Amino acid sequence: MFFNRTSFSISPFNGFNPSKPSKPSKLFNPFNPFHRTIHADLAPAPQPFRAPSRLACMVAAAIIATSLPLASITEAKTFRWASQGDVLTMDPHAQNEGLNNAISDHVYEPLLNRGKTMAIEPCLALSWTQINPTTTRFKLRDKVTFHDGTPFTADDVVFSITRAGEKTSNFGAYMQGIKEAKKVDNLTVDIITNGPAPTLLDQLTEIRVMSRAWATKYNVTRPQDFKNKEETFAARNANGTGAFILRAREPDVKTVLVANSNWWGKRDSNVTEVVYTPIKQDATRISALISGEIDLVLDPPVQDVGSLKANPALKVVEGNENRTIFLAMDQGRNELQYSNVKGKNPFKDVRVRQAMLLTVDINAIQKTVMRGLSLPTMSMIAPQVRGYSKDLEKRPAVDTAKAKKLMADAGYPNGFEVTLDCPNNRYINDERICTAIAGMLSKIDIKIKLNSMPRVTYFPKIQNIDSSFHLYGWGVPTFDSLYTLQSVIRTKTSGGDGEQNYSGYSNPKVDALIDQLKTEADLAKRATITREALLIHQADVGHIPLHHQIIPWAMRKNVTVVHRADNRVFAKWAMVN
Amino acid sequence: MLAFIIQRLLQSILVMLTVGFIAFSLFNFVGDPVSLMLPPEATQADRDEVRKSLGLDQPFYVQFGTFLGNAVQGNFGISLRLGRPVSQLLVERLPATLELAMTAAVFGLLIGIPMGVYTALKRDKWTSKVLLTGSLVGVSLPNFLIGIFLILIFAVWLGWLPSFGRGETTAIGFWTTGFLTTEGLKAIILPAITLGFYPITLIMRLVRAEMLEVLRTDYIKFARARGLTNNAVHFGHALKNTLVPVITITGLQLGAIIAFAIITETVFQWPGMGLLFIQAVQFADIPVMAAYLCLIGFIFVVVNLVVDLLYFAVDPRLRVERSGSGGH
Predict the structure, then answer these.
(1) CA-nearest residue of chain B to A89?
(2) What is the ipTM metric for this complex?
(3) Beta-carbon neighbour count of residue B136 at 10 Å?
(4) Which class would CATH give B86-321?
(5) CB-closest option in A252, A291, A454 to B275
(6) Contacts of B275 in chain A (CB under 8 A)
(7) Taking residues B302-320, what's their average pLDDT?
(8) Is any Cβ of chain A less than 8 angstroms from the Cβ of B154?
(9) Phi and psi based region of residue A252 (left: phi greater than 0; alpha: psi -120 to 50; beta: remaining)
(10) Measured distance CA(A529)–CA(B7) in Å, rounded
């Protein structure tokens, strides 16, 4: 949910394979003549970004941008893109949020990262081997330097993993099961997990590496702390090893990155400068794209996609996000809080839930509300998630007569009233989806009182389980269906179990399967267990899945980018002609 | 005079306390910022802990008391969204908003007054009628619509002016100005016109009404009888005497322009205080909202005070007797 516009995906089963260590990356080129740039003096240790130095910074950025000596770059190209919100912080461990991670990925790098197709590739780590069930050894890339010139070593990895595991880190989800990192030598690190960790490599792709020396110098050895009354230095300054250097950061105005000529990797790009601008208003953002002031809009309104496609100067690239939208019904309480049925809970009756499933016409919603930009589904997990299989998608056809009969059998021939809680600024067209569903359910006399609200009031309400019926969306940051099963479907007990199970769905058989998954390392067995658990949940109609989100990007014709399922734009793969 | 100022200042403090109190009591309904600050896997205990450390578990009057205590010392707390001191954020955003508001006000005066005079002097000309009809549009069209129209025409169709942002800014001390670069000047035109549209029409209509009134008075007739030129009569005598209500309205409008710049700033992604406020509302960023509302209250109060003082300068009658100045 708060993995805002972040989605996480991976082609199934290409994660951890302990028997076959990966080969060193071909990306590293020791003969790169620009490995040490002549501009080392122009890349000073980032300064606190104060007004008087801004102009100087811009000038310096301009000089660097226009004089980059990279052979592949014939002229300086600026890539300007926009979306609704702004980057919250430059601290790589403080905000696990989609846009934030997208910008962080330019400046900071993890041990392993994901390529154009989301496959895991070596990044700061060149290779890895599992030396025992709880220890994985990583060989680090040599001769990598941070933007301030200090060399990258094992100390930085140990430091960063410790930092990401701090209480004030927002990246706890990726640290699950990771006990600690130990330095073996300058270029070797052991990562020790609490038990077998089938998703360790996936998790590491989101743990970005900072310089220990830099963090110590500027007193930012812990991620952003809400108790701290001062801004931390790392919030507006950055020092990573990535392909781009943070040059200017003005919150709500713009974030400027310039190409790091010292970078170890190879870029498929002619971009020398990246300017990210938040533009809150949909109309203004689209106008700026049409007028040519920006090159790419990450989040064009669905209603505008048609006219953008028709514009000869523009193009729209679509891809599906790893996020599933579904309806959740309170099956835990003995009497619904927001309904006219007293003394019992209609949602506890599986026939009522089946009737609702048979009434919700998701294809109609796809056509009219989503304008084709959604993947209607019966599955609680998106196709990119490990554990997904095609046979999860069998959705019964809409059948109102049958639904009415089920309602009558359940003792509600005249239906009932219930309140549907719905966010209005979180998912694509969320409120409109709810309105459409209210209309559909009225066919079987379930009268919906629609209660839509902004996310800041919606999520606390849902988290307090103060709802009888609500719309929810779920992305999977670990790329493994366990995340959905454990958080959303398992019975709520302690810790992560049922943490986000706001529907009160509970089936001991499903719980037992989920508990097996937690320690099962064999991928084939995991797939079987996952499928079984999801099918039981489906037969129970524990939730009513609606669709997986599709995300369109609108851009100028002369721009080429890689549309990745996690909705992140990478300037290292962008061409501006 | 001094007693008057002190009296007004005391009133002002009361006004601001009321604004703050009402605002704070409303904050209970804007939502829970903690739900946005913590990751979804945070436990209830984590959430409670953060809430407690931020003082959000306290009843609103305790929060208000703490806020007041800190605000008196110039400490407005830290933004929950940006993690930076609120006072610093407001100081950074203030120049953008003030430059925009001032430009809009100057547009209002420089365009509104001549148009008002023109429509008063040439009452029956068709151009006057067009202007008057046009001004109705200006009064009735909502701000954001005007802004979007202007963007469509000047940015999308003609491509003359930028559709968003402040352009290149230059820093002079803590003040960043867009007035020193071409880009900055180009960037301010559309938002300033959008924001100035209402004041322009208001001032024009006001000046016109006042002029028509004044032109009928005896001293104007006498001035004409003395054989003064039309210009001397119109601008030396008539216009000067219409200015008292214009100053009042412009003054009050200035406060309103600053406060209602929220909409214009949102449409044009103008990095001022209004945009900061809107984003704060969406994030339930209580410290920023509270500080902004108090600041706006303060600006209104100061503007009103200045307007009152200007009366003394413009209207000699006020200097003689404080009340009962006949008026027009």
Answers:
(1) B82
(2) 0.80
(3) 11
(4) mainly alpha
(5) A252
(6) 252, 280
(7) 74
(8) no
(9) left
(10) 77
